[in-house]
């Protein structure tokens, strides 16, 4: 079964300095039909205005992934990490027993556009942790690159969750497939462009939720960038 959710069905918040689309219930956006999908809890598409950002705040027992689309995200946390996250990098912060951090766009004339993703962990109370890796375009071009998983690899950050996250770039004849376990769930989020998912057309901001499907097929992309999640039920 494949269920589509269109971009304009997401929640939306305009805070002036921050414009955010919420795929699932978050902050003042509440939709009991969209509280998460499997152990995927948050996908926020955030745009931070120049010289603004999220002040220091806390998290606990959540795997948080940042995926920057344009601009640069400045990260600072209570573990001592001071990092800049450019497009092409994947950042993972394990909140564990508790961590505080801030995220800013220090650029004077450029917006920072990024995805904030939360996945529920399969362990709680662990020491907080941080990891950041660069995923080159060649690893994503015409294929799905594994960028977050329970096991770290060259382009893969380690998450403490029963989930895998893939990223891919597709245009024209480029296509890819991924076998799926019928006992699990899969979530496809189209970051930009257009793309067919198991024959269904997605536009930027659209998502496809898959259950009891044997495989995932991606094809006929036009400047498409996509994230795919293999999730615990």
Write the layout of secondary structure elements.
Elements: E1 2-5, E2 11-14, E3 18-22, E4 40-48, E5 52-59, E6 63-70, E7 73-77, E8 82-85, E9 89-94, E10 99-105, E11 112-119, E12 129-134, H1 137-140, E13 144-149, E14 157-158, E15 163-170, E16 176-179, E17 185-197, E18 200-203, E19 207-211, E20 215-231
Parallel strand pairs: 13-14
Antiparallel strand pairs: 1-19, 2-3, 3-4, 4-11, 5-10, 6-9, 6-11, 7-8, 7-10, 9-12, 13-15, 15-20, 16-20, 17-18, 17-19, 17-20
Give a short overview:
By secondary structure, this protein is mostly beta strands.
Number of strands: 20
Structural class: mainly beta
**Judging from the principal axes of the Cα atoms, what is the shape?**
globular
* Cα distance spanning the termini: 14 Å
Helix content: under 10%
Mean pLDDT: 96
Gyration radius, in Å: 17 Å
The tally of helices reads 1
């Amino acid at each position: 079964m494949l269920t589509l959710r269109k971009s304009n069905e997401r929640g939306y918040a305009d805070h002036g300095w921050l414009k955010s689309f919420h795929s699932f219930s978050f902050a003042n956006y509440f939709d009991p039909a969209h509280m998460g999908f499997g152990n995927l809890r948050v996908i926020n598409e955030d745009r931070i205005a120049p010289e603004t950002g999220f002040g220091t705040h806390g998290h606990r027992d959540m795997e948080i992934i940042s995926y920057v689309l344009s601009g640069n995200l400045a990260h600072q946390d209570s573990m001592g990490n001071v990092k800049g996250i450019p497009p092409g990098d994947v950042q993972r912060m394990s909140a564990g027993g508790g961590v505080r951090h801030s995220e800013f766009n220090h650029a004077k004339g450029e917006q920072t556009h990024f995805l904030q993703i939360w996945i529920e962990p399969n362990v709680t109370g662990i020491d907080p942790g941080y990891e950041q890796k660069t995923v080159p375009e060649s690893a994503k071009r015409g294929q799905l690159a594994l960028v977050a998983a329970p096991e770290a690899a060259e382009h893969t950050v380690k998450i403490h969750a029963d989930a895998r996250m893939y990223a891919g770039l597709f245009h024209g004849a480029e296509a890819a497939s991924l076998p799926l376990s019928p006992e699990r769930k899969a979530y496809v989020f189209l970051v930009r462009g257009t793309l067919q998912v198991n024959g269904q057309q997605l536009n930027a901001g659209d998502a496809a939720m898959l259950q009891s499907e044997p495989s995932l097929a991606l094809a006929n992309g036009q400047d498409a960038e996509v994230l795919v999640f293999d999730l615990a039920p």
